[in-house]
Amino acid sequence: MSTAQEQNNIAADERLGGGAEKYGSNGVNGHQFNGTGGLNRQMTHEERQTAERAARFGYGPLAHVNTEEGRLPAFGGEFQPGSYRPVKNRKIANPAPLGLSAFALTTFVLSLINLGTRGVSVPNIVVGIAFGYGGLVQLLAGMWEMAIGNTFGATALSSYGGFWLAFAIIFTPGGFDIESTVEASGGAATFYDSFGFFLMGWFIFTTILLLATLRSTVAFFFLFFTLDLTFLMLGIGYLQRTAAGAPNPHLVVAGGAFGIIAAFLAWYNALAGILDDSNSFFILPVVHFPWSEKGRQQRAAKNDRAQV
Question: What is the pTM of this model?
Fold first, then answer.
């Protein structure tokens, strides 16, 4: 064993209060201690890893010890990309399907309007949905994700709940007069530029979240990938306008198409989180990436079966 490993083992043992001074010369459970507080026997690989992490991070609720028990497998149905979960044996239900459903329905309706479905082009009907379902309900789901210790879910659902509330405030007819005030001061072009900045900011935020899904599942990743493209197409469409000064219709339609896909992927992940053996005869496949933690476990299990 290297000197660095021995030092880590001794430090970990001292953190646990080891040594002959505390446990006596005979040690504990048949293990002898030397005068420095270190173990005389060779440590197992698992014990060595625990000791090294303890020497680096210490113990307690703030210690970031990466153990199998401290991690959740990545799963879009719980809006969980595989981050640490400090709360065990949670007492509340999984809030992710509720937040995903709220996001999906609001995105679906707005995307149909962006596509110009049945000639509808004014997003006023979305205001009510954005305030009630996509905004308030999704924000509450994000707060409940925080209660169960899911940092990613809390960040994403709360943020997109805030997005829909902000969208509703901007487009409330005769309410906050944001659109009319901006247009009165600088014309329609000023409002389109301002709204384009708004959308591009959400494109950047969604890209940040997308990076956290690279080791999760295909369904989870493509939800954020298509949503990212939705914000990008719409943002560019409002910033790069036609000669007449209107938002680029081709880019707006492209944004609507990606939005429809994102909405159905959100519903898919929501359904995956709802279905289990207590209410369904089947579960939805989510397809873990081969390089993800769950993918490596599945591959190792397959290799073990092949060797038997």
Answer: 0.72
Q: Burial level of 153, CB count in 10 A (0-12/13-18/19+)?
A: buried
Q: What is the pLDDT of residues 120-164, one digit of tens each?
A: 989 889 999 999 999 999 999 999 998 888 889 999 999 999 999
Token pair 């190792």: residue: 300
Q: Is 28 helix (H, G, I), strand (E, B) or coil?
A: strand
Cα separation, 213 vs 113, whole angstroms = 29
Distance CA(263)–CA(240), nearest Å, equals: 25
Locate all alpha helices (DSSP H) within the chain, ordered by sequence: 3-15, 20-23, 45-57, 96-114, 124-129, 138-147, 151-171, 178-186, 188-211, 218-239, 249-274, 293-307
DSSP 78-147: GTB-S-B----S-SS---HHHHHHHHHHHHHHHHHHHTTGGG---THHHHHHIIIIIIIIHHHHHHHHHH
